[in-house]
Each structure stands twice: as structure tokens, then as C-alpha cells.
Amino acid sequence: MTLARNTICLWYDRDAEAAALFYAATFPDSAVTAVRRAPSDYPSGKAGDVLTVEFTVLGIPCIGLNGGPAFKQSEAFSFQIATEDQAETDRYWNAIIGNGGQASACGWCKDRWGLSWQITPRTLIEAMAAGGAEAKRAFDAMMEMTKIDVAAIDAARRG
Q1: Which one of 3.10.180.10, 3.90.550.10, 1.10.220.10, 3.30.70.260 gives the CATH number of domain 1-69?
Q2: Residues in contact with 132: Cβ distance below 8 Å, sequence separation at least 6, in sequence order
Q3: How sure is the predictor about 1, in pLDDT bands with cuts at 50, 70 and 90?
Q4: Residues 6 or more apart whose Cβ sits within 8 Å of residue 115
Q5: Which of 53, 94, 118, 156 could pair covalently with 80 via S-S, beta carbons 3.0-4.6 A apart?
Q6: Is pLDDT above 90 for 44?
């Protein structure tokens, strides 16, 4: 067993395993690698309940902790997924929204467990990196969007 030196720990009420299985089915280079059960009762569960789930999302090691309802996900943490084109943007966005999630603004959405995702086409990232008028045009276009429209960002980049 190899333990990653740095692992993202995500708090779930009780659905860490379902969330991890969804991420593994949705994103490449993602997998559920272990499910650990509680050795005894704990404040939000019983002995034998799923306590932690080890998984990867696009190669990033994570642990899902079924910690109970005390803490909720927040936009202060999100996964930013860089997409290559509109088809990939649509695929990830629709998977998250279509599985009980909700749309937000500027390419952000939440999955059904409250975890935030930024589905961000590379063209937008490149426009922001270019700076100047190109970045401003792309940024202004993005501010009007829910899911990012690659063609509209490309048009804004060109002016």
C-alpha cells in the first residue's frame, strides 16, 4: 500500500462511496482504490459503516470521509477541470448537473453532494493568460455565462 504524501480529504455526510464511484465513472484517470469501514461506533455512524473512501479524480488522490452532517461543502474548495473543447465541456457539465447537481455561473456547478466544480475550457484559461484586451473580452463574455460556450469565448478572444 502506497500512501500519498498529500491527499485531499473531502467531508461527506454519508455518501462518500457513491460520490467516489460517480467521479470514477465520469472522469478519466479516476478510480476508487479502497473503501474502509468503521471499526467501532462513532458519532455519526455504526461499526461496519463506510467511514472513508480512497479515490482519485483525474489522478489527484482524495479521501472521502463520511463525517456526518456537521460540515457542508463550500465554494471555497472546488475542482477545476480544464477541458479541450465544447464536447468535453458539455460531457462533464451535463454529467454533474444530470446527476442531481446544480448549475451556477461562469463555468461553476455543484454536484449532488455539494462539491463545487469549475468546468473550464482551455481557451478561456489561455485568454486569461494572454492578458490585456483579449483577457478582458473573454472575461466579460464569461461573466454572462452559466456553462462556458467555447465558440463565444473564441469569438471574444478575436474581438
Answers
A1: 3.10.180.10
A2: none
A3: low
A4: 10, 19, 73, 77, 78, 79
A5: 118
A6: no
Contacts with 17 (C-beta within 8 Å, 6 or more apart), sequence order: 32, 35, 50, 53, 64
CATH topology of domain 76-159: 2,3-Dihydroxybiphenyl 1,2-Dioxygenase; domain 1 (3.10.180)
Confidence check: pLDDT of 3 > 80: no
For the cut 70, the answer to whether the pLDDT of residue 31 exceeds it is: yes
Helix axes 150-158, 122-130, angle to 10 degrees: 20
pLDDT of residue 19: 98
114 conformational bin, left if phi > 0, alpha if psi -120 to 50, beta if neither: left
pLDDT in tens, 127-140: 999 999 999 999 99
